[in-house]
Amino acid sequence: MPTTTVRWLTGKQFVGTDSRNHSVVLSGDDPAKGVSPSQMLLIGLSACTAYDVLNIMVKKRKPLTMLEIIADGEQDAKPPWTYRRIHLKYRVRGKDLTEKAVSQAVKLSQEKFCSVAATVRGVAEITTEVEIVAED
Known about the structure:
single chain, alpha+beta, GMP Synthetase, Chain A, domain 3, 3-stranded antiparallel β-sheet, 6 strands, globular
């Protein structure tokens, strides 16, 4: 079972450490001092699905040469500012990619493999789009 630790540094700045001893600086209200915890959720969701999509595309024998996920979240206006909608835009590059193949990988990730998406889906609607970027 994964275990994480969050330690208060100073003011409203914290450091989060995962079970593999990787760390990230977080800050609730000062963007110059760390990642917002609510935006960290978007980063976690994006990273989770990115991992899946990369692996699925390798198994399809269509490896990616670039993957970028842009996450936009719509939150309630009042506390606790719950995310109600999250849109993930997958920007990908690779040889002979088709939108169908990439979209299938995204769907598999979202519906079967990504634990963060499975957790968030009960509260927020997650939508996706795919953009294939031309090879250089």
